[in-house]
Amino acid sequence: MALSRLSSSSTSTIKSNLIKPISTIFTLNRSISSDTTLSIETSIPFTAHNCTPPSTTVTTTPNELLNFFHTMSLMRRMEIAADSLYKSKLIRGFCHLYDGQEAVAVGMEASTTKKDCIITAYRDHCTFLGRGGTLLEVYSELMGRVDGCSKGKGGSMHFYKKDSGFFGGHGIVGAQVPLGCGLAFGQKYLKNESVTFALYGDGAANQGQLFEALNIAALWDLPAILVCENNHYGMGTAEWRAAKSPAYYKRGDYVPGLKVDGMDVLAVKQAVKFAKEHALQNGPIILEMDTYRYHGHSMSDPGSTYRTRDEISGVRQERDPIERVKKLLLSHDIATEKELKDTEKEVRKEVDEAIAKAKESPVPKPSDLFTNVYVKGYGVEAFGADRKEVRATLP
Ligand SMILES: Cc1ncc(C[n+]2csc(CCOP(=O)(O)OP(=O)(O)O)c2C)c(N)n1
Ligand SMILES: [Mg+2]
């Protein structure tokens, strides 16, 4: 493992800048320690609306960079394996993959605690994993098995992990944003010094309910951070076809915003730290993460009819979030090519083992269809069309 190569003595600060050619930027340091402070420039500056942007110099450590590499590689592999399981009909129904966007989920976790809440749309597998969910829970849920995070009854769009502040997994575009502002209201009311991140896409950004929720959040200074994951497409519609102004970070008007390179995990980490401090003191802020999804919108979309293959491969070559961290690890001499390849092999093994275990998990019992539908004690009675005859009482 790469970490075993690190000495524990060095505490120096190393400066670098990825915009310059790599060979001229980094000082190779074979005796680098796992907790050495590294100062790294973000890929591009932040663009701010109604606020002063944070510094483009981000501090990190070799340990953190190795963790970023491992977690993002795990997420990438997890999604690619889900694609295969879907094609072999072990996963049914809806399934939206997140590969390409990993830096958003991982960078966000680097600047939050589990007291902070996250709520997102249906592209939720990696956000769940970032919050501490396990691969077994992921694959069991995807295949409709009882060991899934929603007991196999939610599927791809309804991942959930309340014990670490993850409130789903929502299929109705945009609906999670007012719910997220409600979570932020609870946090402010309880004075627990935490914030809520409500994630939504560029397509969802055009919805009315977003602005209604943001108005109330701003009026009441709620610690709500609206994170627009701008992957530039809403299903097969390019952002420019759907939005008069695709500057989503400015859409809050009186609410400040920041545009962030969502393919740069360190930029995401920095922006999220900044937004959290802002939200706790002043109320809501919008973060627009400029990102990209490699897969189509969902499994029924090959993803190549409304964009060119060159566009996809161009992003992979120029902006891939895992490759960016890999370059940092290599150029800082934190890990070798071989060690990173070994990590990728370990990740494949972890994923394969989880899939094998998930396949052994049973499907829910038919009677489970009627549980977890309503909060205990609030069951409902179903009437006929005439509203007189009670036809069924649900638990
Ligand atoms: C209220 C509502 N309208 C339409 C849909 C169908 N729909 C599902 S995803 C989607 C596109 C959303 O795109 P975006 O917000 O950019 O998110 P992304 O899929 O790119 O992550 C649409 C229109 C829906 N689920 N809910
Ligand atoms: Mg989108």
UniProtKB/TrEMBL annotation:
- One BP annotation, GO: pyruvate decarboxylation to acetyl-CoA
Pfam (any one): E1_dh
Q: Which reaction does it catalyse?
A: N(6)-[(R)-lipoyl]-L-lysyl-[protein] + pyruvate + H(+) = N(6)-[(R)-S(8)-acetyldihydrolipoyl]-L-lysyl-[protein] + CO2
The record's InterPro entries line, in alphabetical order, gives: DH_E1, PDH_E1_Alpha_Subunit, Pyrv_DH_E1_asu_subgrp-y, THDP-binding
Q: Supply the alphabetized keyword list.
A: Oxidoreductase, Pyruvate, Thiamine pyrophosphate
Task: Give cofactor(s), names only.
Answer: thiamine diphosphate
EC number of this enzyme: 1.2.4.1
Q: What is this protein called?
A: Pyruvate dehydrogenase E1 component subunit alpha
